[in-house]
Design goal:
Blueprint: H1 4-10, H2 13-34, H3 37-63, H4 68-86
């Protein structure tokens, strides 16, 4: 049984990054081939709403929770838009 230090020394980050890049590129190629432009448009809208949710959360974390009502309403709107566009 290898120690943890030996396992970490054998762990090659560049090789793992290349493997992840190959997996992502093959996924994107098959995604573009199998889905129509309408589905890709809806999926991009869902990703956009998710990014807005993350941006709002980070802003609230950095700035504070002073306008709590607007923060909650903005997050609920993002989650609702993601949910309803996925139906």
């Amino acid at each position: 049984m290898k120690s943890i230090i030996e396992q970490v020394k054998n762990f090659d980050i560049i090789e793992q990054a290349q493997s992840a890049k190959e997996i992502l590129s093959s996924f994107l190629i098959s995604y573009k081939q199998k889905n129509s432009w309408k589905i890709r448009l809806i999926d991009s809208y869902i990703v956009f709403c998710g990014l807005l949710l993350i941006i709002q959360f980070v802003f609230a974390f950095l700035n504070g929770l002073f306008p709590m009502n607007s923060l909650i309403s903005g997050m609920v709107v993002c989650i609702g838009s993601m949910t309803l566009s996925g139906i």
